[in-house]
Specification:
Length: 171
């Protein structure tokens, strides 16, 4: 799926603030069709080129067949876990610059450690708001100013702007 609009991001540099068009190639991996469609529509409205998959195997195949910048992965998939999806994607040579984001209802320390160990860059705790989704895309490794270290956590209950680039950040 494609969208003719592009996302505009403000970048701070030596010459001050400038506008930059940023269009990410995004994959949404979610088995719930309503949730998947909502995420796809939101990301398209934000100007991104979006594909979707309902299973982990479809997601892994899509990551091999298409160049992607960002992948949102539900951890509870019907065939293989989201952790396995991230590990398989991360092992592919072309996924080094890929940002992989976990979508989960869990935020216990062991869940976060498992996300980081599986290759996720971010762990978003459901319910996830539209601003958090947009900010997560903006922080992707495809961004020239982005740096990622470890697996970060975002919850909707926290407030304030995204910090850059701690191992844990809050919105």
């Amino acid at each position: 799926m494609t969208n003719a609009r592009s996302c505009v991001t403000l970048k701070r540099g030596k010459g001050g603030i400038r506008m930059e068009n940023v269009r990410r190639r995004v994959l949404v991996v979610e088995d719930d069709p309503e949730v998947r469609e909502c995420l796809v529509e939101l990301l398209e409205l934000l100007g991104h080129q979006v594909r979707s998959a309902a299973t982990g195997e479809e997601a892994v195949a899509a990551s091999v067949a298409h160049e992607l910048d960002v992948v949102f992965v539900d951890l509870g998939l019907p065939d293989i876990s989201g952790y396995e999806v991230a590990a398989r994607m991360r092992s592919a040579a072309r996924s080094r610059e890929l940002t992989i984001i976990a979508l989960s209802g869990r935020s216990r320390p062991e869940d976060l450690a498992r996300s980081a160990a599986s290759g996720f860059d971010l762990h978003l705790v459901k319910p996830v708001g539209s601003r958090t989704i947009a900010d997560a895309c903006d922080r992707s490794r495809a961004s020239a100013s982005s740096t990622t270290c470890g697996c970060s956590v975002v919850t909707e209950e926290s407030t304030g702007p995204l910090a850059s680039p701690p191992t844990t950040f809050r919105t």
